[in-house]
Amino acid sequence: MSFDPEIVVLYCQHCVAPDANVTVASQQMRGLAVRPTMMPCSSKVEVPHLLRILEQGADGVELVACPEAKCRFLVGSLKAEQRIKRARGLLEEIRMGGQRLGLSRKEKLSAEALLDLAEARAGAVQPLGPNPMKKGEPA
Amino acid sequence: MIVAEWKPVNELAAAVGSHGKILLVGCATCVAECAAGGEREVETLAPLLRMALQVEGHPVEIRAKTLERQCEWEFLEELDEIIPEVDAVLSLACGIGVQAVAERFPAVPVYPGVNTTALAIREAPGLWTARCAACGDCVLGETFGLCPVARCAKSLMNGPCGGTRKDGKCEVDENTDCVWNLIVQRARARGSLDSLAQVRGPKDWSNSRHGGPKRMLREDLRE
C-alpha cells in the first residue's frame, strides 16, 4: 500500500550551510510531509524524544548529525548514533519497524540535500506502511 | 545499589494489555541509577507500551509517575489520588518497591516491569557488576575487600578453583574477572599472601535466605 509518509527531520545546526532555508524548501515538497527541526546538537535527542514523535503519528524520523570527527561536542554525534540504535531495537521488539528511525552524518548541507535525506527515510518507511498510531487507528 | 533490567516489552504488553487505564510508576533511586526504572525509563517505556498495544489492537491509556522511592511508605502517599483512577499499576521498581505498592494498594493489580537481578556497582558507563549477595555473614575482612560469595561463580570460600583462565578471567564467563585471582593479587601487593593459606571453614548461611525470610528487629527504634 503506497502512502505519503510524514517524516520528521531533526538536524544539528552545524550540519547545514548557513544560507540553507530549510523551512521554505520543506514547504515546497510534493508527496511527502517533512517537518524539519533544528537542534543545537544531535546529542540533545534522546530515546524518549524519538519514541514520542512516533507515538504522535510521524511515519519516520531522520536524525542528521555531524561527521564523527567534526562534532563540536566531541562525542555528541556518537551519543546520537547509540540512541538511534537503542530506539531501533525497541521498535523492532514491538514490531513497529526499526527502519522508521535513521541517522545520517553530513556537513554543509543545502536545504535540498537535507530534504533528500528525508526522502530516503520515506523510502525506507514505505514497506512498513503508515504508522499505526496515526489518528489512533489500530494496525 | 539494587540493579534490575526491563522485562521484554512484549511480555509487559501482554501482562497489562487487558486493562484500560494503566499507571506506570518509576523509582528515582537504585533502578534509576542502573537505567532500568527512573524517570527517563518511564518516559521511554510509556510511549513504547502505547505503541506496542496499539499495534496489537488494544489501545490503552497510560499515566506516568516517578516516585523518589517506592520502598518507603511516605513516598507512596503520592499515589493515593491516582490509584482510584487506574485499572492496574506497572511498577519499574525493584521487587521491594513492587511489593510495597501492592501492599499499600491491595485492590489494584500491580505488575513488575523489571527483573531485579543483583546488588551491584556501576563499574563503567553502561556496565554494572555484582558486588554483594546479602549473604548475612560478611567475609570481606578476610578476602581483602573482594566478595567471593557474589563474585565467584561457585561462591568458593577457599579459592581459586582450577578453572581460572590464563588471562585471569573466570571459566564460566570470559568477561568476568576470577575474583580469587584478584584476591590473591591484592594479598600479594599487601605482603599478606600467607593469610590466604589459612583454610576458611564452612560458611554460616543461617543469616541469609537459607535461614528463611529475613526479619530484622531493632527494639530501640520501635514505636
Question: Could you name the key traits of this structure?
Answer:
heterodimer; A: 139 residues; alpha/beta; Rossmann fold; four-stranded parallel β-sheet; B: 223 residues; 2 domains; three-stranded antiparallel β-sheet; 7 strands; elongated
Strand arrangement within the widest β-sheet of chain A reads: 2-1-3-4
- Please give the count of helices of chain B: 7
Mean pLDDT of chain B: 96
- Could you give a short account of the major beta sheet of chain B? 4 strands, parallel
**Gyration radius from CA atoms of chain A, angstroms:** 14 Å
Helix vs. strand class of chain B: alpha/beta
What is the mean predicted local confidence, pLDDT of chain A?
Answer: 92
Looking at the structure, the CATH topology of chain A is Rossmann fold
CATH class value of chain A: Alpha Beta
CATH superfamily of the largest domain in chain B: Response regulator
Report the principal-axis shape of chain B.
elongated
Q: Assign the CATH class of the largest domain in chain B.
A: Alpha Beta
Instruction: Name the largest protein-protein interface in this structure.
Output: A-B, 17 and 17 residues
Main sheet overview of chain A? 4 strands, parallel
Instruction: Quickly count the helices of chain A.
Output: 4
What percentage of amino acids of chain A are in beta strands? Answer: 15-25%
Number of strands of chain A: 4
Structural class of chain A: alpha/beta
